[in-house]
């Protein structure tokens, strides 16, 4: 066993490069003063790589606006030593869009992980079971019928998502909420709400309908600081709540019956986590519209990279940010000067990933 100890201002920092987590998986143990813990080594490695890749892609995205700036120029602009025009373009135009992509990607990924964790169903993500569509419906009602502003639209998205979740849970409830029933009910409600959304857009004025249709595809093109700042604050608070309620999420992955056997039947978590998951989806939908497949694919990718059959929430959030920022770069540059809605790119990437999963399942059955 090897260990590393560091002393800094009277504090002892101890990292032991041995130990196990979850059935013999390599672990890193740490101790800072009176606090100690252990991290799964593979999860730390995957999370670090994902974080570095996300930072690199964010720098590339900052320079991928109407005024193309090299990565070195982006760093100089952020430090205040670059070209004034580049500084203006990056700080005022690109920065809110990039920050929104990072925050919304993490929020959508966490939301997907929450519902896949609680339903024990790989398809249990908000964009499949209708919560994202419900948030979009609420936002459309406020925008097109009542001409509401941004805050009213955000509130409508939240109410629409929560109301949809309540209806889906009520229809799926039968001595508990089964994952399969939840997905089936969610798909049915999602289809009906999609028809309502089409009707709302068709009856609206032409300019409002075109704006709503573009927003309905999921777009980050119109993001401003006035829209990003409140959303970032809300998402930060929601993530803190998720972190507080998900401390026992490894036990939840074993199922509710096994959790109760271990004395970990936390009703607060089982009620609070779905509400936080819907709120995370609604916060992103209210600003950027429904962005599909991030919620579905990010938890799957995180589980495959980390292994062990677990859903690491931190890695999932980082991969969600990475997926959305890469998708936004593709949307902005693939057909330049035409800019695609980022939701179009995420749908294409998600479809490719689902085809890959189907191919793997067919190979395993053979």
Structural overview:
The structure is a single chain. The chain contains 15 helices and five strands. It is globular, with a radius of gyration of 22 Å. By secondary structure, the protein is an alpha+beta fold. The longest helix is centred in the N-terminal third of the chain and has 36 residues, at 84-119.
What's the arrangement of secondary structure elements?
Elements lengths: L2 E6 L2 E6 L3 E2 L3 E8 L2 E6 H22 L8 H9 L4 H36 L6 H4 L1 H16 L3 H23 L6 H25 L2 H11 L8 H21 L3 H4 L3 H6 L5 H22 L5 H13 L6 H21 L8 H24 L1
Antiparallel strand pairs: 1-2, 2-4, 3-4, 4-5
Helix pairs in contact: 1-3, 1-14, 2-3, 3-9, 3-12, 3-13, 3-14, 5-6, 5-7, 5-12, 6-7, 6-12, 7-8, 9-12, 13-14, 14-15
Summarize the structure.
With 366 residues, the chain is of the alpha+beta class. Helices cover 70% and strands 8% of the residues.
């Amino acid at each position: 066993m090897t260990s590393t100890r560091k002393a800094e201002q009277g504090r002892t920092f101890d990292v032991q490069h041995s130990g196990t987590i979850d059935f013999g998986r390599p672990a890193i143990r740490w101790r800072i003063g009176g606090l100690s813990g252990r991290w799964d080594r593979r999860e730390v490695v995957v999370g670090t790589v994902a974080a570095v890749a996300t930072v690199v892609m964010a720098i590339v995205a900052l320079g991928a606006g109407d005024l193309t700036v090299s990565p070195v120029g982006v760093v100089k602009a952020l430090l205040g030593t670059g070209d004034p025009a580049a500084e203006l373009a990056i700080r005022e135009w690109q920065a809110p869009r990039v920050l929104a992509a990072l925050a919304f990607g993490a929020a959508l990924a966490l939301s997907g992980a929450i519902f896949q964790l609680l339903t024990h169903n790989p398809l249990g993500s908000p964009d499949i079971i209708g919560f994202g569509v419900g948030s979009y419906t609420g936002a459309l009602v406020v925008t097109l019928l009542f001409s509401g502003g941004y805050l009213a639209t955000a509130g409508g998205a939240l109410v629409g998502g929560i109301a949809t979740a309540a209806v889906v849970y009520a229809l799926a409830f039968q001595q508990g909420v089964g994952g399969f029933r939840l997905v089936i009910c969610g798909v049915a409600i999602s289809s009906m709400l999609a028809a309502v959304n089409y009707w709302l857009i068709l009856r609206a004025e032409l300019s409002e309908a075109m704006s709503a249709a573009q927003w309905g595809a999921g777009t980050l093109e119109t993001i401003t600081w006035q829209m990003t700042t409140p959303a970032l604050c809300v998402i930060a608070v929601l993530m803190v709540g998720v972190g507080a309620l998900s401390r026992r999420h490894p036990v939840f992955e074993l199922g509710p019956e096994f959790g109760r056997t271990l004395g970990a039947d936390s009703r607060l978590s089982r009620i609070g986590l779905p509400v936080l998951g819907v709120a995370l989806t609604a916060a992103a939908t209210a600003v950027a519209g429904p962005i599909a497949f991030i919620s579905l694919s990010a938890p799957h990718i995180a589980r495959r990279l980390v292994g062990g059959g677990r859903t690491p929430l931190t890695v999932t959030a980082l991969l969600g940010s990475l997926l959305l920022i890469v998708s936004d770069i593709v949307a902005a540059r693939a057909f330049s000067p035409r800019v695609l809605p980022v939701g179009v790119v995420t749908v294409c990437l998600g479809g490719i990933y689902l085809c890959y999963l189907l191919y793997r399942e067919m190979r395993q059955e053979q």
